[in-house]
Design brief:
- By secondary structure, the protein is an alpha+beta fold.
- It has two domains: 71 residues, no CATH class; 68 residues, no CATH class.
- It is 27% helix and 36% strand.
- The chain contains three helices and ten strands.
């Protein structure tokens, strides 16, 4: 199934709500309405479909679309952009910890009593704190994922399969901190 180049943004008003959607004309016989977890609504319609007919069908399904959007909202707490300053909260293993930035003898990050204690050799700046904390997260991710892989891999012992190597990379987009891949 090939989508045509006509990928347009549209919207319809249903009561007090506006439903924004992307419209893709495809080589298909029926219309598809998909609501994604990132709150996007994608409509795939047959190539020769009239926009008025498409909007009418979206209005007919509007209650379902809005219900889906509300359902996905509960899983999407928007984390504000991080500033890496004293008192700011950061997550680790599902719990919140506040930052405490200090100047000291060596660069370090320690987790203790509800705080990330970040020590910088020079005056602690947001950039230095971010770099140290990300490095700390990366080290902890290596340990956590290696432990998890070891625990799960025991079920495959004796099957003649080599244990894959884990590759952990920092995600570019907000939302997920690390991506793992077994190779």
């Amino acid at each position: 199934m090939e989508a045509s180049i006509h990928n347009n943004r549209h919207s319809v008003v249903y009561g007090r709500k506006t439903i924004d959607f992307s419209l893709l004309y495809c080589d298909r016989k029926t219309m598809e309405i998909a609501v994604h977890p990132d709150s996007t609504v994608i409509v795939k319609a047959p190539v020769q479909s009239d926009i008025a007919l498409i909007e009418k069908k979206i209005m007919k399904r509007a209650r379902w679309i809005l219900r889906q959007l509300n359902y996905f909202k509960q899983f999407n707490p928007k984390t504000p952009d991080r500033c890496y300053v004293n008192g700011e909260t950061h997550l680790y293993l599902g719990k919140q910890y506040r930052l405490k930035l200090v100047e000291g003898a060596e660069n370090s990050v320690k987790l203790s009593r509800g705080f990330f204690h970040i020590t910088c050799r020079n005056e602690p700046t947001p950039n230095a704190a971010k770099k140290l904390l990300n490095q700390w997260y990366s080290e902890k991710a290596q340990l956590q994922f290696a432990e998890s892989m070891e625990r799960c891999w025991q079920k495959f012992n004796g099957l003649g399969i080599d244990q894959p190597k884990l590759s952990i990379k920092r995600m570019q987009k907000d939302g997920a901190a690390f991506q793992t891949r077994a190779r």
